[in-house]
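Re: the multi-chain job from yesterday

Posting the exact lines I submitted so nobody has to dig through the queue logs.
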Amino acid sequence: MDNIAGTKSPLTWAVHISVVVLVLMWVLPTFGLLVSSFRTGDQIVSSGWWQALTTQEQQLSPIRIAGEAVAKDGAFVIEGRLFAGTGTVLSRWGTSSIEPVAYEAGQVADLGEGVALTVAADGAYALTSAASLEGVRLPRVFATAATPPEFTTKNYDTVLFSPLAGQTVFQAFMNTATVAIPATIIPILIAAFAAYALAWMEFPGRALLVAFVVGLLVVPLQLALIPLLQFHNWIGIGKGYLGIWLAHTGFGLPLAIYLLRNYMVGLPRDIIENARVDGATDFQIFTKIILPLSFPALASFAIFQFLWTWNDLLVALVFLGTGNDQQVLTGNLVNLMGSRGGDWEILSASAFVSIAVPLAVFFSLQRFLVRGLLAGSVK
Amino acid sequence: MNPAFQAMLTIGFGVGGCLLYFYSSNIFLDKVLYPATGPHAGRNINRANQIRPWLFLMPALVALGLYLAYPVFATAWLSLTQDAPGNTRVFVGFANYAQMMTEDKFWESVRNNMLWLVVVPAASTAFGLLAAQLTDRIGWGNIAKSLIFMPMAISFVGVSVIWKLVYDTRDEAVAQIGALNAIWLKFDGGIWSVLFVKVVPGLALLAFVAALVWVAWGLIRDLRKGGFWGLALRGLGLAVLAWLIWSSVSGLWGLVSAVPPYGVAQTWLTLPFYNNFFLMAVLVWIQTGFAMVILSAALRGVPEDTIEAAIIDGANPFQIFFKIKVPQIMGTIVVVWTTITIVVLKVFDIVLAMTNGQWQTQVLANYMYDKLFRANDWGVGSASAMVIMLLVTPILVWNVYNVRKEMR
Amino acid sequence: MKTRLIVSTGVLALIAGGAFAQDLKFPVGEGAFNWDSYKAFDDATNLEGTEISMFGPWRGEDQVLVESMLAYFTAASGVKVNYSSSENYEQQIVIDTQAGSPPDVAILPQPGLIADLASKGFITPLGAATETWLKENYAAGESWVSLGTYMGADGAAALYAFPYKIDVKSLVWYSPDNFTDAGYTVPETMEDLKALSDQIVADGGTPWCIGLGSGGATGWPATDWVEDMMLRTQPADVYDQWVKHEIAFNDPAVVAAIDEFGAFAKNDKYVAGGTAAVASTDFRDSPKGLFTSPPQCYMHKQASFIPSFFPEGTELGTDADFFYFPAYAGKDLGKPVLGAGTLAFITKDGPGAQAFIAWLQTPIAHEIWMAQSGFLTPLKSANGDLYANAALKKQGEILTNATTFRFDGSDLMPGAVGAGTFWTGMVDYVSGKTAQEVADTIEQSWPK
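And the result, structure tokens for all chains:
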């Protein structure tokens, strides 16, 4: 909407602001996940992710005194620190869940039976006891403290390197790429030919075939699994890579044909007519004119098909197998969550680990999503 | 054989095989079967041209027939049969369908699916179009597009955690981990609360009603066009719009008169009726990226000359958008709308993971999943799958209509 | 550039790879294990070169544990085991058996599902010898045999599944320090438990954390509550009739049991977050309320697997402990215990699969896992001293001393109810419906 006169209109500012609002609305939830992936599981369920970004004053969960008793000045002393990092400032503390704010920082509390405890503002504690502390249950400290933002890369460590996943992340990436790349490339070619026929060739039943293809988009995946696995077993390819490539090709064809056809219909009729007049066969027109001009549509379908096969787990489990060495990345990530799931911090980190490749694919294919190529070709 | 090596071989064979098939079949057709020379040249060329489309279509049709059409028939057969002892099935006619229609949850699913079908494709396409248009000419457009596209790239487990961190509810006394509740608890009934909880949503709802009235007016004006089908579809559209306008107006009234429960953490996903919209927000959030990518390519394809001519004629940006750009990309809008509609018909993991169809949020695809793998009732499950597939018929009709229009 | 990328990744792929092999965790011959049984099995079984595929519900850390046990099986018999798992294992096993590519052995926690597979002829019966062995060697052997006995495709009842790893469910978890701080004692009877709950409310606290959320399985913790209540208000054979549908689901006995659960869950003052939060709180998040400051609740009823969801660093025995969910002193029904577990069955017969079932009959197969964590067994000849910690030993004793032991009812009921309407019915109950309404709906949904 550049105006010809050349001055920046207020409309441009409105556009920029609206885009910022739109982007913020879409990105904030994901940003929450990003922040959560750097927190521990306990942190995620006890405070909101926005609170992790600033210093928060809160009542912490009880921390039990731990350490070796040292003989000092005729008494047994256990010293230590409540908080692992620095920067936490304790304001009040207590030893009982009923009175968590009984004492101030630095105050000495008498816990009875000759035991005394003091906790300083930086979390350093000293427990003194006249008698031996062998076998005695040590007290807990309830601290009210201002904790600075605390982040950890442990989740990414677990996702990338934990042996609990069943195989290395690298192996999983390789397996997933092995599934995704052929499953993206093969449907494109088959669909391109079909789309051209449906877009530019005249034959009876064309409209109905288009409807047939669209209708097949709606077939629920779960119902195709058993008949197709039976079929694969029957023809002898069983579970394996060939099976999953064929399955993904079949499942991805309707969308491919639909998107490609729609794009090809929009190509200028004149180019094709002129080529026909010049004596080109349909095959030549297709390979030399249509296919190169359709790159934007091919690229956009490639993005979506790659995404779908990359993030898919169900088709992989059914057609590829559940064994560890055939596992795809999503399978790895499910394994890390253990038998009952619920590790929100692992989920967050794994979501970002697995998003890296699809986003890279999206970025690299973005430059094809321009149709400026067409503008000059008619003339 | 090492899988990566196998993959490269397969790509090579697949691509090469395809090209070989197409090339050789075309050669065969044009040179051997119906050569364009000799006494019957004219007739041969015609025959060749009649057969050629099917050559181009054959691999796709084989794959589609096997991988998608065959399961449809298998499903239809399953829906007409029931489990019998010893892993066999016995034909029972429409008994499964009859049983399915007696279940409350089925009708609830149908109603909810209708709601989803009205809201999600429209919202995703609208936001996608908006995003595509706005990011078109600005310098950081690519980055903005990638950020709006990102939700599509996140796997479903990531999405479920993201929205758990938005909708979660805790007791008011402890810290909230759900963003929505954290914002809600900040409202206390004062001036800002009235502004954000009543005025802004009220204005948005009014704008929505105005847009609906404008669309309805367009439909009424063109009511006579298109013959019988045009009248029927427009009538249906008007009925839907009337219902939407009615519910929006009563919603507006409810908004003004109700006393919101300030200071009480809401369990968003259990609020009757509104929880559907919270679930829909997740799908709209994801699908907008899809709409945006496709519509962005289409917008870029609108010839510059038409736009320049309009600017010279003094059109403002809004007129250019609605009167020039949108009509030219209408075909793509149909494609995007159709695809998202079909995605909506198939969506079940959002509902499964967040509410499992409880609190009146059940949808057909989740109902089908429940019947298939929990209740192990493949008869009723397949019947509900057939219903899902039938629901796509209006979209099919619209597409056939569009294709016929292009052909003219 | 693209080809170079493809080639280089291809080369890397050829170099990469590698499995995580398992060595034997405890050296053979050392420790209080039953090495005689190991040697006897070793001598008797020699199937070098055989490979079997196994499908189970254990992933992550649990997978490491089961593979440590399987390493011994491989060492003793020569059979290589390819263990795998899947999140939606019910879906996976149904698809694999129906499509004709089943694993050799499967281990699953749902007897109802296994019964379904047996009736379709997908499972091989284990034979009369195994049946006798179970009767003689498992505590309360008869009930374990009936747990694994189903109707086959031929219409005859036979033993199809071998119970292997058990979870005890009738446990209430609490923080001993919080109890001491407030001056509470562990209740021994249900009447005392209710009095304690009232006491906590009177003192200004909240007694219970209850969370039913579980994604697609939301509602299942409530079924455990109702089943435990059923065992504490009715004799054990009424429970059996309920599970087998010999009495209707909306029988007054069942409705009363549901209301017993409601006495806890539908009392706004009893539950952290109030009744509204019960159905929407995730079951994995709710026990954390025991350890906050101030404590959101004092007690949480859940099965023996829940410690893996306690905050990191929580020590069992010091920071968290459990007591038996008590029975009514007034009713004379003993100390019933509700449990769940997994059963192993053969989906593709072969010498390797048969050898695995024979392996499960040796004490060593149980002891390897017992000595590590999270494993309970009713096998009488397994050495109870080998339990990894005092908590497990306590649970093991609850298991062996139970006057009545019953398996989780919802796992025994047909899928449409046990994994469907029972769960959703409980959510409806907590969200406001009456017990009678909910029981009627569930009764209607029972497959004819």
